[in-house]
Design a protein that fits this description.
Blueprint: H1 3-27, E1 33-36, E2 39-49, H2 60-87, H3 92-118, E3 147-152, E4 156-160, E5 172-175, E6 179-180, H4 182-196, H5 198-201
Antiparallel strand pairs: 1-2, 2-3, 3-6, 4-5
Helix pairs in contact: 1-3, 2-3, 3-4
């Protein structure tokens, strides 16, 4: 796997991720939702989260800074890892999956680093759309940007758990509920493929072993071994 090919893959994922996020930010107000090609199970639903992928949260303002710095450190470390994987000529599939995880992490890191500075806040009640580089400044400081999510696939809706089921019995059920973005999908796809094919990806090449003969006899020019 050549470094140029890997860089191109990473750039394509980041471009697709950021292009869709910018489109949503500049055309949707927070909470706005539209069907994709008229399909109920495929929607663009604009939400923002302050935490990890898939909308998970982590410890308020301090947690947000810690998470952003962790992402930054992971991306820097990932750059060296990818270079090392290429030099060691690991399995092509493994390197591609690692690049997908790296690209997804970098895509969400861009939101966390810069979106708070370059966008103002959208409001669900006022239904206002955010502006790029607003005159009054952004909605947050550096490191405090929110990650933009929009992909929503509620394949099963208006369903209920059976009444006999412990804990969730009778409650509403929906599949698939999380709202995510291309970066999240890239990370998850890379991780799942590695888990599924880890034996193939990480199998070490073993060199052929030469058969040896152990003997207590003295071997010299006059001795023949058959």
């Amino acid at each position: 796997m050549k470094a140029k090919q890997l860089i191109l893959l990473i750039l394509c994922i980041i471009f697709a991720d950021q292009a869709l996020k910018l489109y949503i930010k500049l055309n949707y107000y927070i909470g706005e939702e539209h069907l994709v090609l008229g399909q109920q199970w495929a929607r663009l639903h604009f939400v923002e989260n302050e935490g990890m992928a898939w909308g998970w949260k982590f410890g308020g303002g301090f947690g947000k800074i810690a998470l952003t710095l962790f992402r930054l450190g992971a991306v820097i470390w990932g750059s060296f890892l990818l270079s090392d994987f290429i030099q060691k000529k690991l399995h092509k599939g493994f390197i591609i999956c690692a690049a997908m995880i790296y690209a997804g992490a970098l895509g969400n890191l861009i939101d966390s680093l810069f979106y708070g500075i370059i966008f103002d806040q959208s409001n669900a009640y006022a239904q206002n759309i955010a502006h790029l580089f607003p005159t009054g400044g952004g909605y947050a400081s550096f490191l405090h940007g929110k990650v933009v999510d929009m992909l929503y696939f509620p394949i099963i809706t208006n369903a209920h758990f059976p009444a006999w089921l412990p804990v969730w019995g009778g409650e509403d059920f929906e599949f698939f509920r999380p709202v995510f973005n291309i970066a999240d999908a890239s990370i998850s796809t890379g991780v799942m493929i590695i888990l599924l094919f880890q034996n193939k990806f990480l199998a070490k090449e073993t060199s052929a072993k030469h058969n040896t003969i152990e003997t207590n006899s003295v071997v010299d020019d006059n001795t023949q071994i058959s």
